[in-house]
Specification:
mainly alpha, single chain, about 70% helix
Length: about 80
Amino acid sequence: MKWLMYYLIVVNLLTWIIYGIDKWKAKRRAWRIPERTLLLLAAAGGCTGALAGMLMFRHKTCLLYTSPSPRDGLLSRMPSSA
């Protein structure tokens, strides 16, 4: 049982660090860590570290506000260029 506690501490700390590195790279428009890697780390037990990373680094928390999407309805309100 002790090894499980150590595993969870390590994987959550690693996940938190990786989320921070990805946000740092995003600010510098550098090559990003694949989202698949971030999700696999969270699924491997690092969900608390992932959540902490998302909240502390504001990582992928405001995507609907920064990028237009058909769900936003913005595209239907844009004037046509006809």
